[in-house]
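User: My instructor asked us to take a sequence, write out its structure as tokens, and then describe one feature of it. I'm not sure where to start. Here is the sequence I was given:
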Amino acid sequence: MAILTEGINFIGRIGNLNAYKLKGSDKIIVRKNTAGPSKADIQSSPTYQRVRENITEFGACSSASKAIRQVLYPVKHLADYNFTPTLCKLAKNIQVMDTAGERGKRSILLSRYGHLLEGFQLNRINTFDSIIRHPVACSINRETGSATIKLPALVLGINFITSRNYARFRFVATIGLVPDIVYKVNNYKSSEQTSLPEVIFTEWQSLQQSFEAQSITMQLKELNALSDTKTIMVGIGIEMGVSLSNQVVERIKHAGAAKILAVG
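Assistant: Let's start with the prediction itself. The structure tokens for your sequence are:
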């Protein structure tokens, strides 16, 4: 590593030199690029066996996070950061719990460890739990392929906290299936194809009025798609809105929060 103090100041790559700045410093760091392993070496050399295993298992984590994101799609717009890498980390934590599988072939058994996803927040600044300060209960019935969400009574400033003076709010809930990701033959595959999630919205409510407790029952559209290798997942979010008229409310972009409520 070298620090550039004279000559031509530059950031980026020139020849075999790479120049960049570190966070918190105005100095330019220069490194010499070193040649890495070739694609052929990574694919076949015994030296890179562990690398191949990691690459293969990372692909499984990506597939699992994709299936989870599909269920969360109706509340995805409420996220304030790219939560996909964090989902991949959670999937990896579940993957290493498969002690029966060989390294490079370990499964992501959401049907067994899906409860580790419960409480996953789609926000970092204002989370769902920081806005709704009262637990939102949810019970899942696999026999009927349904879930019941119990929204608590809310009072602004007591157990309902917002950072801004919004006019309206409503809840949005989603339910869907996420499959196990298992290794078959020479690649990872999900147990089966999944259908699109179901979504329910509550009525828009004024923040100046107390919110009465209520229950929401959600039902999977295709009950025959439910199997032992598929897990029911429920997500919940809160949207903020502004009144355009007595009957029309417009959702405010980038306002609200969401999380994974229950898995079972």
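For the description part of your assignment, you could build on this observation: DSSP finds five helices and 14 strands in the chain. Try explaining in your own words what that tells you about the chain.
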